Amino acid sequence: MFVIDQQDSYGSDNLCTMSEADIKENAGAVLGLLGLSEDEITLSLNPTMDIPEMSLVGGMTGMYFGGMPKLLFSDSDMMASAQKINSTNPAGRTYDYRYMREQPANQRGGQAEDAVFMENGYAVYLCSEPFAGNVTPQAYSTFNRGSIFYTDKGLFSADISLVADIDNVVQGVELLSFDNIKESFKDSLANDPEIIEKSSKSLEVISAEFTYVLIEDKENNNKATFIPAWYFVTKDKKLKSGETSITYDSIINAIDGSDLKDAVK
Question: Do residues 213 and 239 lie in contact, with contact meaning Cβ atoms separated by under 8 Å?
Answer without folding.
Answer: no
